[in-house]
Every structure is written in structure tokens, then in C-alpha cells.
Amino acid sequence: MDLRLTKFTKRFGDVTVIDKMDLTVRSGEMMALLGPSGCGKSTTLFAICGIHKMDGGTLHFGEEEVTRLPAQQRPVGVVFQNYALYPHMTVAQNIAFPLRVQRKTRSEITDEVGRMAELVQISNLLDRRPAQLSGGQQQRVALARAMVRKPDVLLLDEPLANLDAKLRLEMRSEIRRIQRETGITAILVTHDQVEAMSMCDRIALMKDGGIVQLDTPMGMYTDPADKFVAGFLGNPP
Ligand code: ADP
Ligand code: MG
């Protein structure tokens, strides 16, 4: 399902941090929101998942306007940098949690948790608790929990930031594999240009609360709109 932000505006007090931003993410694509710290990436993601209300503009998922839809009712799955798994629950219980909230039957839950564990390849870890997992494994659980309700849109906020270099590489390709296999529309927030270039179909490069350029990784690299873009991608003129 495609996603359309039109004239999105966000203020904190008197400060306008996003000013009339337009963004379209196509159905089934993985879009990077890339940019330096503080440029407004997370703020944009929070508006899309409904954690923050928008101060202006509209948001559509496909034909449906969801601008004022409460967060719990939006068809989105979210993964944050710090996993936010429930420490007292097992892996299986963590993944099952969104389904229990939906009051699914026990056998439906067992089936779905099994299916998700297979997708993210943690079927052998279902009885462990988060503290007994590596960072990469925890991030796989977070992905499974985000996807278990079959959302239309997957939102990832710096999902690799807490991983060491080796796991980060592994999880880059794993997240991409999972996104491709499920065909889910996804947005990856990152400040790492290599991550955006290697994982995403297109990149929206942000600066000071707006999008400076939106293109494929190759298009942006070979034809940067300005010096900021060129510098940020590590290809200064
Ligand atoms: P990014 O994710 O790109 O690093 P953010 O979206 O978190 O940036 O922040 C964008 C701007 O909004 C920053 O200047 C930040 O200080 C400000 N900001 C974010 N959240 C809040 C908040 N809850 N209250 C006030 N200012 C905020
Ligand atoms: Mg952020």
C-alpha cells in the first residue's frame, strides 16, 4: 500500500521543525529517510505511526486518509533503535503480544508466532527471554513483533544503531530480505548514508526539517542536487 504525506507540518512549542513536507512512498518499496541528527527524521516517523499528532497537512495510506486515526488503529508496525522488548516475557510472548491485544484464539496465536519466527529465523529461540539474546537476535524479535499483525507499512527508526559492526552488516541484508519477502511498504530512518544506499530503493535526504532531494541511491550519488547532498553521500564535487 502506498503512503502519502502532504504538506506535513510539525511544531514543538514555537519552533516549526517540519514545514509543509511532501513525501510519497510507493507500494512495496523501501524508502530511506536519511539526514543528519536533528533534521526531523524521527518526528516524521512518529507522525506516520500516530505517536505525534500533525500540526498541518494530511496523511494517506492508499486511498484512506489516516491523519486523525489513533495510533493503535493504524496498519503500521514499528521497530525502534532500542528494541523495547518486554524483558519479563519470552520471545514467543513478545511476538504474541499484539495478537493477544487483538484477542486472537490460542491456536491462531501459536500459528502466527511460528510463522513470524520462521520469517525472521528465530524458531529455536522462542522460549528465551530478551536478556538471553544477542542484539541482532533482539532486533529480529522486534521485527517479528512489528510484523505479526500483518501491517501495511513497516517503520524502522535507526534499527541497526545499537549493533556492533558485524551484526549491523548481517541485519542490513536480513531486514532487506524480510521486506522483499513480505513485499511490505517500508520506511527506514537512518543517519548512515551507506545503510540507506545499500538497503533502500529510494532515499529522501532531509535537512532542517525538509527533503532536499529524493532519488534512487545511484541517481542521488551520480547527480546530487547540491553540495550538501554530495557531501553527505561522501562524494563531494
Ligand atoms: P532526527 O530523528 O532526524 O535526529 P528529530 O525528528 O528527533 O530528529 O528532531 C527534529 C527536531 O525536533 C530537533 O531539533 C529536535 O530537537 C526537535 N524535537 C524532537 N522532539 C521534540 C520534542 N518532543 N520536544 C521539542 N523538540 C523536539
Ligand atoms: Mg531520530
Automatic annotation (TrEMBL):
<dbReference type="GO" id="GO:0140359">
    <property type="term" value="F:ABC-type transporter activity"/>
</dbReference>
<feature type="domain" description="ABC transporter">
    <location>
        <begin position="3"/>
        <end position="233"/>
    </location>
</feature>
<dbReference type="GO" id="GO:0016887">
    <property type="term" value="F:ATP hydrolysis activity"/>
</dbReference>
<keyword id="KW-0813">Transport</keyword>
<comment type="similarity">
    <text>Belongs to the ABC transporter superfamily.</text>
</comment>
<keyword id="KW-0547">Nucleotide-binding</keyword>
<dbReference type="GO" id="GO:0005524">
    <property type="term" value="F:ATP binding"/>
</dbReference>
<keyword id="KW-0067">ATP-binding</keyword>
<dbReference type="GO" id="GO:0055052">
    <property type="term" value="C:ATP-binding cassette (ABC) transporter complex, substrate-binding subunit-containing"/>
</dbReference>
<protein>
    <submittedName>
        <fullName>ABC transporter ATP-binding protein</fullName>
    </submittedName>
</protein>
